[in-house]
């Protein structure tokens, strides 16, 4: 798709028609297939012809020629369209390739990805080359284009330049703009942001919102500005209000907001019994959450909650394709569509036993089939960190009387520091730790105190954050420096140290933000990290999201950003960063 103007070239379409004429054989024939017909909303039985990556025919006929054709008798199986995950943050320790491979095993064959990491850390030429490489995957990857960084960058106007934003929006692989975390700027009169939204709509693409707790008036205004969908419903009333204003509602079930059972129950209480304007998302969850599955998990929850079977499958396929205007390629088993098909043991069991993606087996009879080559990440500028600067003891000076207190995994509020900071080690009879954010290039730092992260974390360092700057937390300055040095040594990652020793590490060899390991391996490493942090007093569920959102200004109240301690509600820098 990304190497040519059209999805299929004229020659390919002629070959596909030749299959119908009996002059060529299909590559795969699915006989006696009981499948979901998404337009008729019925379970039908038919023969399905596939030629390379396209469904050529669905009906009663059999091809005249089956030479060199794989024939599969589907008796006893139920076939549904490949699932679509419309809101993926493909850099939550994993990378786009490792996530897509894992997703395919659960039946998700199309994903729509956030481009934030590429926007912040790769130039446009390398980023677009990488998109072309991703197109070689059997899993279809679409993208969104960000309008803002969801934090306070030192030079946001040069990073999110008009030219670069427009280039992304015009890219064939980009199907939407957003997510719109900077909507307060829009309300305040930011006409460049409105111009980008207008351009998105002119291109026939969608705009994704980010409106937690938004009032009806705000939702109405955002619809007037051009927003099409929002994934921040936390109650049944939130769903109702979004439907009332004409939004597509993305029902979320994620590692920090596992809301789906509650949403479905409250929707039922409100009498909401139509699901055509609803889709599912796991909203970029952290690795361990995906042990339960991806779209298949959400379909299962919906079925158990009493959602009609076909509606449950449509929210993970047909509804998504219609929303993004890609139903001519995806979201249904029908003539002319990309051959993304899940083979189920029964309609009540959404996790497939076999999966076709672009007409290739990525899972067959329960066994994974790797259909794409490993990416050479260094070709695209995604390499281990190479820091040419050191952390000095003088950097670990803490005197600020103002700190941040964690309300939950991701919300931080201000508090007044009352403990003695003139020490190299804080006592473990309270939940206050040294907290430091360091520029990834070593130019600046900000030192404060975090309350509520843990009681006995001695040294902790992370190159994983929303901006790629470094986070140091701990009770003991020596252990904090040890964790930092180890993070530097392994080319980026998350490191936990204690009593002069490294007790756990996760290597993130792609810019210090993503791992090149399999998702299954990351799940084990993340689970161990969570265990160790919980043993040391971390009271919440998702420390990875805590790291990600310490600097994210789309959430209240106080954030630590590249500009300093930032008051989100008043949009002011309270304490600036210090140059090193």
Automatic annotation (TrEMBL):
UniProt entry tagged with the keyword Hydrolase: yes
Keywords: Hydrolase
Catalytic activity reported: adenine + H2O + H(+) = hypoxanthine + NH4(+)
EC number: 3.5.4.2
Enzyme class: hydrolase
PANTHER family named in the record: ADENINE DEAMINASE YERA-RELATED (PTHR11113:SF6), N-ACETYLGLUCOSAMINE-6-PHOSPHATE DEACETYLASE (PTHR11113)
InterPro entries: Adenine_deam_C (IPR026912), Amidohydro-rel (IPR006680), Metal-dep_hydrolase_composite (IPR011059), Metal_Hydrolase (IPR032466)
GO molecular function per UniProt: adenine deaminase activity
Adenine deaminase C-terminal domain span: 410-571
The name this protein goes by in its record: adenine deaminase
Amidohydrolase-related domain location: 78-362
Pfam families named in the record: Adenine_deam_C, Amidohydro_1
Keyword Hydrolase: yes
Family membership: Belongs to the metallo-dependent hydrolases superfamily. Adenine deaminase family.
Organism: Lederbergia citrea
């Amino acid at each position: 798709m990304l190497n040519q103007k059209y999805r299929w070239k004229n020659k390919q379409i002629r070959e596909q028609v030749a299959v119908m004429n009996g002059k060529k054989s299909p590559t795969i024939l699915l006989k006696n297939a009981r499948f979901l017909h998404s337009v008729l909303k019925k379970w039908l039985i038919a023969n399905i012809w596939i030629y390379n990556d396209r469904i050529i025919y669905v009906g009663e006929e059999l091809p005249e020629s089956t030479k060199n054709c794989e024939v599969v008798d589907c008796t006893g199986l139920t076939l549904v369209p490949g699932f679509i995950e419309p809101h993926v943050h493909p850099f939550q320790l994993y990378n786009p390739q490792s996530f897509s491979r894992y997703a395919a095993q659960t039946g998700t064959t199309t994903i729509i990805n956030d481009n934030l990491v590429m926007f912040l850390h790769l130039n446009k030429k390398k980023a677009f080359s990488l998109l072309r490489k991703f197109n070689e995957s059997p899993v279809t990857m679409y993208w969104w284009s960000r309008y803002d960084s969801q934090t306070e960058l030192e030079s946001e106007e040069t990073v999110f330049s008009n030219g670069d934003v427009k280039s992304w929006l015009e890219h064939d692989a980009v199907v939407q703009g957003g997510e719109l975390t900077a909507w307060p700027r829009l309300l305040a009169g930011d006409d460049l942001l409105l111009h980008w939204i207008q351009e998105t709509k002119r291109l026939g693409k969608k705009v994704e919102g980010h409106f937690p707790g938004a009032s009806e008036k705000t939702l109405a205004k955002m619809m007037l500005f051009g927003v099409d969908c929002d994934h921040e419903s936390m109650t049944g009333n939130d769903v109702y209000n979004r439907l009332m204003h004409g939004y597509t509602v993305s029902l979320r079930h994620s590692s920090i907001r596992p809301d789906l059972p509650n949403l479905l129950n409250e929707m039922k209480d409100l009498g909401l019994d139509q699901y055509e304007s609803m889709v599912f998302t796991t909203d970029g969850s952290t690795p361990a959450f995906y042990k339960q599955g991806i779209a298949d998990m959400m379909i299962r929850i919906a079925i158990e909650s009493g959602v009609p079977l076909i509606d449950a499958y449509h929210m993970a396929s047909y509804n998504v394709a219609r929303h993004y205007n890609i139903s001519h390629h995806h979201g249904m088993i029908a003539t002319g569509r990309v051959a993304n098909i899940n083979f189920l043991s029964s309609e009540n069991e959404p996790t497939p036993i076999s999966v076709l993606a672009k007409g290739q087996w990525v899972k067959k009879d329960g066994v994974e089939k790797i259909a794409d080559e490993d990416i050479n990440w260094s070709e695209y500028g995604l390499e281990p960190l190479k820091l040419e600067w050191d952390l000095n003891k003088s950097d670990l000076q803490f005197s600020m009387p103002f700190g941040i207190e964690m309300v939950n995994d991701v919300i931080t509020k201000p508090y007044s520091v009352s403990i003695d900071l003139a020490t190299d080690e804080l006592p473990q009879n309270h939940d206050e730790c040294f907290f430091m954010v360091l520029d990834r290039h070593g130019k600046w730092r900000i030192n404060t105190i975090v309350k509520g992260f843990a009681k006995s974390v001695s040294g902790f360092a992370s190159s994983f954050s929303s901006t790629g700057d470094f986070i140091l937390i701990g009770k003991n300055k020596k252990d904090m420096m040890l964790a930092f040095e180890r993070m530097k040594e392994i080319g980026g990652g998350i490191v936990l140290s204690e009593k002069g020793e490294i007790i756990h590490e996760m290597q993130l060899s792609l810019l210090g933000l993503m791992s090149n390991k399999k998702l299954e391996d990351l799940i084990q490493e993340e689970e161990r990290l969570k265990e160790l942090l919980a043993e040391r007093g971390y009271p919440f569920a998702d420390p990875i999201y805590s790291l990600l959102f310490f600097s994210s200004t789309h959430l209240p109240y106080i954030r630590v950003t590249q500009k300093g301690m930032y008051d989100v509600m008043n949009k002011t820098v309270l304490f600036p960063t210090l140059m090193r």
